[in-house]
Structures are given as C-alpha cells and as structure tokens.
Specification:
Helix content is about 65%, strand content about 5%. With about 325 residues, it is α+β, with helices and mostly antiparallel strands. Strands 1, 2, 3, 4 and 5 form a five-stranded antiparallel beta sheet that branches.
C-alpha cells in the first residue's frame, strides 16, 4: 500500500535526522571528519529544507576549514548566509572576513587553531605518533591555551588508536578531572564507560553473554528491502590496522573498481578493530562484497591477518554500534538475519 503524504513526510524527516545524527557521531565522537563532511553534504543536498540544514552548513564550514579546504568552507559559508541570513549559525560565524582570510593571519588564538588543525590532520591520516608530537609541541609553546581540553582529549584518542588503551583511558580520566563541566568531559566519560562495559562483558560466563546478547540485539533494526547497506570489516587488535585498511583499498581497486567506496579509519571496539566501508551502489553489491572479501583470505594472510569477518550493516545500525560499542550484540543480531 502506498504511503500517505503525511507518512512519507515523517519517513523523510526520519532519514534526515538519521543523517544528521550520524554526521555528529563521526564529527564529535569518532573524529572522522571526511565521513562527517560526506554525511552533512548529503543532508544538505537531499533535504535542503530540513530543520538541521542550517547547522549542517555551519558544521561544513568548520570541518572544511579544519581539513584545509578554505575555498570550499567559504562556499558553504556563502550558502548559509544566502539561505539562512537570520540563523543563529550566521551570527556564530560573524567574526569578520572569510575563512581564507583568517587562515592567512594565524596569530594568537589562530596560531593555536592552526596547530590543532595540523594535529587533527595527522590523526585522521592515522599518524598518531605525529599527532602526539604536535600536542607535546603545543604544551611547550601554548600550555593552558583556550582549547587545551581538545588537545588533551585528542591525545588520549591517539593512544587508544595506537592500542595503548590503558594509557588512553588514564588520559581521558584526567580530562574528566580537569574539565568536569565541558562537552569534552562528557565525550571522555562516554568512552571510559564503554570500555568499562566491554571489560565487564568479557568477564561474564558464556551463558550470561548469550542471554545479554538477546537483549542487546533489540536495539539494532532489520533493514528494509531497498535500504542501503554498508560493510563492517572486523578483526582482532594486534595487527597493524592502517596496513589492513590499505589492503582493503587495494582489494577494492582490484575486485570492486566499479564501486566508488569510502573506507573509514579503524574504530577500536574492545579487543577488535572495525573498519566501516560505505557508498555501495546497491544493497546487492554490498552483499556480494561481503561474500567475496570473506573468501579473500590469501590477500590478508600475506599481511599477517588470518582471521577476520565482513558483515553487512545499515547506516542506522552502524550509528547504533558506534554509540553502544556492542560489537558482540551486532554480530549475533546479524547472524539471525
């Protein structure tokens, strides 16, 4: 039965909201700026009248500036000023001059901003040692600066990404103590609590794990017939995650060159890395990809990876996985589909 106009509007609003929430997770929690830019751009393109579009444009200005694409940042800024001249986000950007002009005059706080952007760039490229070195340089030259909390938080994420979870969590606990009422503190607490949940889950019996999995799977939703599907590539910590990401890229070029796929940076969930692969042309392509890559064991064995698993996943379920960090729950949910 065709959907009524009202039902269609509700469905479109839900899709727009999901895109916005996914973009915020990639931006604020995962620090995956390229993927956040892609999702915000899709939101603006598909839902120009969404209530979240003004903020999406505002975030695109900031993210493109942090990525070094100042001309694109200025284009998004112009679009925000033209379409939403009375928006609060316009007032938030009214600091004088274009973003390109500000970048040319890096002094005082702008010098600190530039240093943080360089750290973010190193982080997004997977060069965590370089990012940590930049943070140490910031401490030497700008100790106690106005975005010190961001430097401290990103340094903690670098250690976690490197596999030194104990050090990373210790630094996050210090962030909570140093900045108790900040948004950064809330993000740090989320990660600490997620790690604590994973540690507890690893200590329960197999029977309790199975019982809990039944409940945890309820938060994941079955994909609709034509809903786009992505892939999560899961493997145990201990292998060079960025090398595996590069191997996936090589595999895509050889076996799926007809697909223009996006490969996100590795996400650490407990004792496993998860690499999110998206932008498949059709759900069937995603399913074929999962079947193919799960059989391509020789490609990954050559890199020292002998056990891995690729699963299909909807964007909404990946957002939920990123929020809950419940990888076992999703695995069991997927096995029942």
């Amino acid at each position: 039965m065709p959907l009524t106009s009202e039902a269609q509007n509700r469905n479109q609003s839900a899709v727009a909201q999901s895109l916005f929430e996914a973009a915020k997770i990639y931006q604020d929690r995962l620090i995956e700026y390229p993927e956040a830019i892609r999702l915000y751009t899709e939101l603006v393109r598909r839902f120009p009248n969404s209530e979240n579009t003004p903020q999406a444009l505002y975030e695109l200005v900031k993210l493109n500036k942090q990525s070094g694409d100042y001309s694109q940042a200025d284009e998004w800024k112009a679009q925000l000023y033209t379409k939403y001249p009375k928006s609060v986000y316009v007032r938030m950007l009214e600091t004088g001059g274009t973003l390109s002009d500000l970048a040319q005059n890096a002094s005082g706080n702008q010098a600190i901003d530039s240093l943080f952007e360089i750290m973010v760039t190193a982080y997004t490229k997977g060069d965590y040692n370089e990012a940590i070195a930049i943070k140490q340089s910031s401490d030497r030259n700008f100790a106690g600066n106005y975005i010190q909390s961001k430097f401290d938080y990103l340094q903690a994420l670098c250690f976690i990404k490197k596999g030194d979870i104990t050090k990373g969590i210790s630094l996050l606990e210090q962030v909570v103590l140093d900045y108790p009422s900040s948004d950064i503190s809330l993000r740090a607490r989320d990660i600490i609590e997620a790690q604590q949940r994973l540690k507890l889950e690893s200590e329960v019996t197999a029977g309790n794990t199975a019982s809990n999995a039944t409940n945890s799977g309820a938060k994941f939703k079955i994909a609709s017939p034509n809903e786009p599907l992505d892939i999560i590539f899961v493997f145990a910590k201990g292998t060079n995650a960025n090398m595996i990401r590069a191997t996936i890229s090589d595999f895509n070029k050889k076996q799926f060159s007809f697909e223009k796929l996006n490969i996100a940076s590795p996400l650490l969930i407990g004792s496993n890395y998860v690499i999110h692969i998206s932008q498949f042309s059709a759900p069937s392509a995603s399913k074929d990809y999962a079947a193919f890559i799960n059989k391509a064991t020789a490609d990954f064995a050559a890199k020292g990876l002998f056990e891995y698993n690729a699963l299909t996943i909807t964007e909404a379920n990946f957002v939920e996985l990123s929020r809950s960090m419940d990888l076992n729950g999703y695995r069991q949910f997927a096995a029942k589909q």
